[in-house]
Specification:
Layout (H helix, E strand, L loop, with lengths): L23 E2 L1 H15 L7 H20 L4 E2 L1 H35 L12
Parallel strand pairs: 1-2
Helix pairs in contact: 1-2, 1-3, 2-3
Length: 122
């Protein structure tokens, strides 16, 4: 291909092989995002632990499949968002557990120790 003087040479794009598959979004990426969103929404109620764990395991599988596909599986942005939401759900659950433990310890510290006998008992 020739170009006029002063123009940058035009690079030709390599043509795809006819048997190459079309790029497609990984279905696990959408599932990871949905589970991560559910984990973030229910994290304070400790219900977010299960969907967050499943989302993190699915994201690991989806990354391996995307790497093995050679770039024909897309959806890396959905995976990242889903992983972030899953970690957020786990962090909210951990904050809730810590808060419950602190409240329990404070209440136990305020409670009287031993038996509370009446004033006429030695």
């Amino acid at each position: 291909m020739t170009t006029a003087p002063g123009q940058a040479p035009v690079a030709e794009h390599p043509t795809r092989h006819p048997l190459d598959p079309d790029p497609a979004r990984a279905t696990k990426a959408r599932a990871v995002f949905a589970l991560g969103l559910m984990a973030a929404l229910t994290g304070l109620f400790l219900g977010g632990v299960v969907p967050a764990t499943v989302a993190l395991h699915l994201s690991r599988q989806a990354r391996r499949e995307a790497y093995a596909s050679g770039g024909f599986l897309t959806g890396a942005a959905w995976l990242r968002r889903g992983e972030r939401l899953a970690w957020t759900g786990l962090a909210l659950a951990a904050v809730c557990v810590v808060a419950v433990v602190v409240i329990a310890v404070v209440r136990m510290a305020e409670a009287p120790l031993g038996h509370d006998f009446p004033s006429n008992v030695d």
